[in-house]
Design goal:
- This protein has a single domain (3-209), classed as Vaccinia Virus protein VP39 (Rossmann fold, 3-Layer(aba) Sandwich), CATH 3.40.50.150.
- It is 39% helix and 25% strand.
- It has eight helices and seven strands, in the order H-H-H-E-H-E-H-E-E-H-E-H-H-E-E.
- The protein has helices at residues 3-16, 18-25, 29-37, 55-63, 76-82, 121-134, 151-163, 177-187; strands at residues 45-49, 68-73, 91-95, 107-113, 135-146, 189-197, 199-209.
- Strands 3-2-1-4-5-7-6 form a seven-stranded mixed β-sheet, with helices on both faces.
- Strand 1, helix 4 (55-63) and strand 2 form a beta-alpha-beta unit.
- It starts with a helix and ends in a 7-residue tail after the last strand.
């Protein structure tokens, strides 16, 4: 099963989970609060990858009243629920695949919660490069997501994705913190650090786009 087919499988899975989504993800609200706390004070233009129903935007818009967000999510049902939020007028929604949609450019920050743990390392490298390129110089990428606690757990999940995906409606393939950081460094992010949040297998990873200094 190729990446496009896997992403469509994810789309179907999350469209079917709309009624229980908020109940599950409200257990991560402290993480979502911390995400907002870690953004730069002058943050105004934000890209949110996989926002679902927009739970992480509740704290964000309270703290940054002048901010607006572009949200990309593959599930049309999730975006329909987001459109009912009080802050919906401050959000532009795009329904589509992260690997196919044009992200735009000049964002102060790209954020994501519980959305990027479905991809292989080589796919994350492609995705993180897109994120890097759409950020302003000195812009932030904050990813709050599941992690593998060791290499063995990561390898097992990736094996299931590669060989047994037909037997699952949904497969999580989180990477270890070390492997996440290595990919970000390879792309060119700097100032990378991580914090455990909410649960043992969950982390907030913060990285900044390298400032380009032009030679006179």
């Amino acid at each position: 099963m190729n990446l496009y087919e896997r992403n469509q499988k994810q789309r179907n899975f999350f469209n079917e989970k709309i009624e229980s989504y908020d109940q599950v993800h409200e257990t991560y609200m402290e993480t979502k609060r911390m995400l907002a706390e870690n953004l730069d004070k002058d943050t105004k233009k934000i890209l949110d990858l996989g926002a679902g129903t927009g739970l992480e935007l509740i704290y964000l818009f309270e703290k940054y009243p002048n901010a607006n967000a572009v949200v990309i999510d593959i599930s049309e049902n999730m975006l329909e629920e987001l459109s009912k939020r009080d802050f919906a007028k401050r959000v532009t929604t795009i329904c589509g695949d992260f690997f196919e949609v044009d992200f735009g450019k000049d964002y102060d920050a790209v954020i994501s919660t519980s959305a990027l743990h479905h991809f292989k390392p080589e796919e994350k490298e492609i995705l993180y490069k897109k994120i890097f390129e759409c950020l302003k110089e000195n812009g932030l990428f904050i990813n709050c997501d599941k992690i593998s606690l060791n290499q063995e757990a990561q390898n097992k999940a990736l094996y299931e994705l590669e060989h047994n995906i037909e037997n699952y409606k949904h497969i999580d393939t989180p990477l270890t913190i070390e492997n996440e950081i290595a990919i970000l460094e390879k792309i060119g992010f700097i100032g990378i650090h991580s914090n455990k949040v909410d649960k043992e297998d969950y982390s907030l990873i913060k990285a900044r786009k390298k400032i380009i200094i032009s030679k006179q």
